[in-house]
Write a structure and sequence with these properties.
With 114 residues, the protein is mostly beta strands. Helices cover 0% and strands 58% of the residues. Strands 1, 2, 3, 5 and 7 form a five-stranded antiparallel sheet that branches. A hairpin with a 2-residue loop joins strand 2 (18-21) and strand 3 (24-35).
């Protein structure tokens, strides 16, 4: 059967990454959630790996009404040292307050060299 939500990870608009503070790299992404659960839901986003990641967003968990879609901008900040050859693959866990839970792979972009 179908899952109770569809989640898509999209690149953010503008620059693929930024160095906001020394040693920290931020990637803007967009998380699109389509709620098909039959009820309103709250969707929590977290980074699975313990790499000192910080998520910045207006709300977490994100409320999405039944049958609705919502695209939320999210900034993921990790230490520059985590990048190898300008990239770092991470896993994001998206779960609701019910039975939905999914892990999605995402490639962060960053500087070459440390």
């Amino acid at each position: 059967g179908k899952q109770s939500a569809d989640v898509t990870l999209l690149r953010g608009l503008g620059e693929p990454y930024m160095e906001l503070t020394p040693g920290q790299v931020t990637n803007p992404i967009r998380v699109k959630i389509k709620n098909r659960s039959g009820r309103d839901g709250l969707y929590k986003i977290e980074v699975v790996e313990d790499i000192g990641a910080r998520l910045t967003m207006s709300e977490n968990p994100i409320p999405v009404a039944d049958g609705e879609s919502r695209t939320e901008p999210v900034s993921i900040t990790i230490p520059r040292i985590e990048f190898e050859n300008g990239r770092r693959d991470i896993t994001l866990r998206i779960s609701d307050d019910g039975d939905y839970g999914e892990q999605l792979e995402y490639r962060l972009l960053g500087p070459f060299g440390n």
